[in-house]
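Two records follow; treat each independently.
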Amino acid sequence: MTDRLTLLGTKGGPAIRPGGPNPTSILLDLSGRRIVIDCGLGVARGLVETGMSLKELDLVFITHLHSDHVLELGPLIHTAWTTGLDHSVTVYGPKGTLNVWTGFLASLAYDIETRIADEGRPDLASLVEIVEYGPGEIFREGDLVVEALRVDHPPVTDCFALKVSGADKTLVFSADTAPFPPLVDFARGADILVHEAMLPEGLDSIVRRTGNGARLREHLVASHSFAADAAQIATKAGVGMLVLNHLIPADDPAFTEDDWRAAVAPHWTGPLIIGRDGLAIAL
């Protein structure tokens, strides 16, 4: 297994449009483990497209419970199960993740019970362990360590940036957050910072297409970061590479990679990647 970071879904927000990218999900291959970070719509297909067999699934981290990060958690595990998953899967998520999982099991009870009886599959509920976490170190196995930092994503209280260290590499994932100075120390010296990003000039496009005008704009500005904010965090933290992800807007042809690079340029001069679905970055 080659250590790599694969962006499976790079769009901010839950809506999908023809030809556009999927909501947020990431696959991190590191220290011999395959780690799924967030499970927005499209994660199962995205994982398969990397060449991964879904029955290999065993470790998932959820940053927060907005639908564009968790909508396909249950369906991903269920689909892996129908593909032949027969070992335990551990899901780390904030408070409320257990309710998401048990609610999914209840909604698919007929299908699950039928497949157990008819196809001889193992009990799905018994295969999955949900670990609800807070700030601090949340996972350690050999040289692989995962730490969490609560970030500023109102009105969501339990939203966490994640720092994953292993194989002499450190990657930090901002999750969804307004500009948050503590991320500087959290990401200090990381090899890669994956940070959410918006374009100021793209907000009108989002509001126009999605509706709910003033309220949506108010939420976006209060709860998310502009590309320039992400660039400043990366510079202050001295990271090796900045990857812009959870892009807003991500599916408007009026905005290209040049727009993102121009927004970052005054604040960041290091290696820069603008996220797109399926992009793999060697570590």
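The next record belongs to a different protein.
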Amino acid sequence: MLTFDITHIDHCRRLESFLRTLMPGASPGYCRKLIKNGAAKLNAATATPDTLLAVNDRVTLKESSATTSLLSQTRPALDLLYEDDQVAIVNKPAGLPMHRTAELEDNLVDEGTAYMARRGTPCKLYPVNRLDRGTSGAVILAKSSSAAGMYGRQVKETGLDKLYLALVKGVPDESGVIAEPLDDKESETRYTILLHGEGNALLAVTPISGRMHQIRRHLEMIGHPVLGDKRYGAGELPDYDGFALHSFRTVVVRPEAGPLTVCAPLPDGFWGLVQRYLGQTPDAVIARLGVCLAVGGAGA
């Protein structure tokens, strides 16, 4: 058996997604098949592809020539959190724009399209939701215009249940609701402190409405801007290509299979920011992330 111990780098990742990081060259259904037939187990027990992993979990793979040949020492260029015939949910790095810009040619849509072509499953990708260039985390990319329209209607009519992690300047009240209008429209953002140091805090943030730059603008309004967000009240972060805002948890309602919870593990650099600005270890953060999975809200 091949054994892999889960660290903070993959905490809350789906089991199927973890197998994809081990075998980036595998066909889309291969990892799911390993789980279904019991060749991949979690803590010596059968599991489902959607099971969320936790630190100190142990994943085992039945050793075979096919599996061994697919194992890679490097992670794939595109971090796929979930994929089916209609959508791919990707963990976007901070600093990477959704589309090509005048300043930067590299972008998520082109990288995703190139990845699909290299893998032998070419398709045009359409963003269902978007993240600012400086924000990291889960983004839904549709594989066809029809899928984009279907999921786009879902976002417009009911919103996405989303939760972000934000490292902010100062320490706000333990929890709160920010209901200041944005662009003359009703807007609401809810937050809870997960951890704090002497001068900064890590928040779990749920946007109830979906205005442009809503979280960033609302946090600036209460005097606690996101670290690294120079546009809305904070300076740049050294050695981090973006600001300290991460789309951590997204709940997607699939037309035939129903709701799915997808979590995007924090980027390596974000863990360093928590250590630097809060003086907290990954273990301390992980102990509080369970709160994030329990927090509800119909974000957008």
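Discussion point: Residues 145-158 form the longest helix (14 residues). How would you locate this feature using only the token line?
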